[in-house]
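Shift notes (night). Ran Glutathione peroxidase while the centrifuge was going.
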Amino acid sequence: MTIYPFQVKTIDGEEISLRQFAGKVLLIVNTASKCGFTPQYKDLQELYESHKEKGLEILGFPCNQFMSQEPGNEEDIKTFCELNYGVTFPMFAKVDVNGVYAHPLFVYLRKQTPGLLGFNTIKWNFTKFLVDSKGNVVKRYSPTTKPYEILKDIEALLDVTNPIK
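Came back to this:
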């Protein structure tokens, strides 16, 4: 199985299939606007701008499960991201990433790449999942991993995806 069968809701409320990202390398991130890691939005946006033409998509999924650090509604989140960080990469409706109400995409991501000591749960905001151009989950990164620390892994997948430079 791949991530492509999953349906997600955009931050504007439109239900879409992840199949629309087939052929792209994806970095899926659970985000929050009032977190110590929130400034990673800036680095994520820069990474997106420098690599989107090479086949990278960054998908942001706001989550309020960690100390209520994403309290706003989708419009609040969208405005915050655009005004404060110039975010243009796709953002989605708020989701739970753990527990009984966890979005099926995050249940799948967690199972594919267990965290530290094999635990299945996501520990905090800005956990990142790298997905190859065929929809396979490649690796999980901790919230403390800065987006540019993932760059070599992303570029290795982009080179496979786009062998002609």
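Helices lie at 40-51, 74-85, 104-112, 151-161. The domain at 7-18+25-161 is CATH 3.40.30.10 (Glutaredoxin).
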